[in-house]
Known about the structure:
This protein is mainly alpha-helical. 40% of the residues lie in helices and 6% in strands. It is built from 19 helices and 9 strands. The protein has a 3-stranded antiparallel β-sheet with strand order 5-6-9. Strands 1-3 form a two-stranded antiparallel sheet. A hairpin with a 7-residue loop joins strand 5 (291-298) and strand 6 (306-313). The longest helix is centred in the first third of the chain and has 28 residues, at 32-59. Mean pLDDT is 93; it is low at 1-27.
Amino acid sequence: MYILFTISVVSSCTKHFEDLNTDPNAFNIIAPENLFAGSVKSTLDLVGGTMNDQMFMMYASYYGGKGGQFSNFFYTENALDTWWRQFYVDCIKNNQEIIDKFEGNPDYQNRVLIAKIWKSYQYSILVSTFGGVPFEEASKGLNATNYSTEEEIYIAILDLLKEAGEKLNINGDQLLPDPIFNGNIDLWIKFANSLRLKIALRISEGFPALAQQHGSDVMRNENNLINSNSENATMKWGTEQQNWSYNYSRYIFVEPQLDVLPNINFHFMLNLKTYSDPRLFAIAEPSNNPIDIVDEVYKSGSTTEKIRVRYKLPYFGRLLGGNGIVEGWNLDQNLNILNGVANQRFCRPKKEIFMTQDMGFNIITNSEMNFIKAEAKLKGWGGTKTVEQYYYQGIDASFQQYGVSGSSQYKQLDGIRWGSSSIGDRDLFGIKTSGISDDPMDKIVRQRWLASFNQGHDIWCLQKRTRLLPIIAHFNPDGSTGLDWSEVPERMVYPPLSESGFNNAGFVAASARLANGNSLTSPLQMNKSYIPINYPSLIVQLNQDFATNFYGPSEDNLIAAGIPYTKL
């Protein structure tokens, strides 16, 4: 049975459409547009909504201290069963129907190719989250299926994207209504190539030859990549209640439970604060209950004499594990400026961008593509510009995307400026800093993280591949883990209930291919190996660098920012 529904999803470069209605009894004449709209809406709700909120945003260190078993580095079997079913039935099956029913018909060539692009995107999420998964057999609705390997799936989806990028015809049939690009075939070509390059880079650690083959091929024609913010690939929710965003429905329309509030991550916030990044104020909502800060600044008009001042600071993020600390550190929590601060006091994502009914969820942005091209150039995959030029273009595009000025000044700062380095600020425990080395990869990865807020899955994959983000482990993981602290999971486990019951042979074989079986600690082939930090052995020192000189090093900065303060 097909369930047809009203949908309103668009991209940042389209006018939104609504009311895709069909006769529910017309089972045999369902148009590709209706099947595709349903697939996009289901993918948006699952990947950009539920999984992003409950899992990916914590894994990317965009959120901190969030309640829930997935957020605390474990899982629930029932939720996994539901997500798995939603992926294969609601997201993939409808889209696959377009390919199965219309492939070979020249009147539908573009629409079939668009469905292949979307199939590639869907499976790119599945395979980089779980590892090898049921692929072609499952796409056709078979319950008991073999699990394809990671490599087999990447070969297939990269080939599908190559086919679509080469065969889409701007003079051919259109997908209308089109919830992503409003029927613009040229933008679908750019999306296909951009996604292909993005996936190639994602697997470059685990499958270098395959990655280079596709990455180099795409980089030969950069005109066929996303090159402006108007071309960003974005899914968007709608203003009718059945189409409201996950975030609006859960955190605005109803009063949310305090333990599941989405607070901005401490380390992400620290990396914005250190460099006086104006994107901080576009991304983070100020606290409605600021914390008191005692700071030392230069006296007004002086560059030598310092004074102590007290003021209220409304911008502070929450640690990944909330108030958790590692046993054995023997810290005096009375010296911890964030100890005992209630959940609802920390900064949350900006309402007008990340909490509206019709908010968008980015798949690929121009800023991200520039950082991807910078890394591709660094790998020798080609490119018409230097690594430095792509890097700076990525920063400029991000500032433009958020509607903030100051990118020229920002790019001149130590650590941000190409070839420079910075010491940065210490995190709360003095374990990590926001310093940036002169290593090109350190710069590219850091800026891609800062530019991609809310793209939780992408940054989780980036960290698994590079291990370069200055983030820490979860110091208060779910009790079911049996751990005092936990690193970010290497993958999510296969659903134990549904797959062991309905597809046991495939489930057992796939689990056996994983280093540690069907566990959160089994690395995927795309993941870079690393040596975990022995946190209990570290010498830690509580500090308040995250707040020190937040508005600048001088009393004059406080005056210019309009911040009331008291001299001590």
